[in-house]
Amino acid sequence: MPEDIITFPCRCYILGDEGKRRAAEAALELEEYKESEVVGIGTGSTVAHLISLIPEKDFEEKTFVASSMETALSLKKRGAKVLEGALLDKIDIYIDGADAVDGEGNLVKGGGAALFREKILASMSDFFAVIVDESKLVESLKYKSIPIEVNPFALSYVLRKLREMELRGEVRKAGSGKYGPVVSDSFGIIVDLDASDWKEGIEELDRRLRNIVGVVETGLFIGMADAIIVGGEEAVVRKLSRRRV
């Protein structure tokens, strides 16, 4: 197992936008990125920094695939060649943020409602790099809100099954400009879970959730990351042993 990333030997972390920016800068210095031809890009505020920092020459030399419409539009605005994920069966590297990272490098993702496509791209990639600031490092993922994506037809059934598991699930509501639930780019409804009372391990929680008919995917990324990059005065890069499936 990897060493505890919560206790990186560094006291120079930077929170917020500056930490995110420095993590993004470090990701662009990875050999896995420099040598890549097809690059997957995730969704969220940290990724927004990443897109703004990609050198112009990379948009001429590399092809990109985005986990969301928002990211695709941002990449296109900078002149990137963006392919639809359905046209690819493998990508060289996938770079994305995370809502939480535990001491073993497991993740909670889905704050941007793109978790299903993000997990597909992470699975397709030869190398998955996660960029975060220190605020995303946690002792346990159970104490973070865990999103799942649900087929709309199964929503009421899934909510009942969650109650039977003694989990509290809440349909995520859209913000300004739209009434009703948040709907992903894959047309799933996002449900946020409070799993703080869950008594078993996080892997068992992921397994049980995925076994509910109607759950498209969970925001738990267990053993999927190849590297965690934490932004600071000097970004700290921890490479992990990824579980290949």
Automatic annotation (TrEMBL):
Gene Ontology cellular component list: cytosol
Keyword terms, alphabetized: Isomerase
A Gene Ontology biological process term: pentose-phosphate shunt, non-oxidative branch
Keyword Isomerase included in the entry's annotation: yes
EC number: 5.3.1.6
Enzyme's top EC category: isomerase
Pfam families with a match to the protein in the record: Rib_5-P_isom_A
GO molecular function, one term: ribose-5-phosphate isomerase activity
Keyword check for Isomerase: yes
CDD domains: RPI_A
Name of the protein in question: Ribose 5-phosphate isomerase A
The species this protein was found in: Fervidicoccus fontis
Gene behind the chain: rpiA
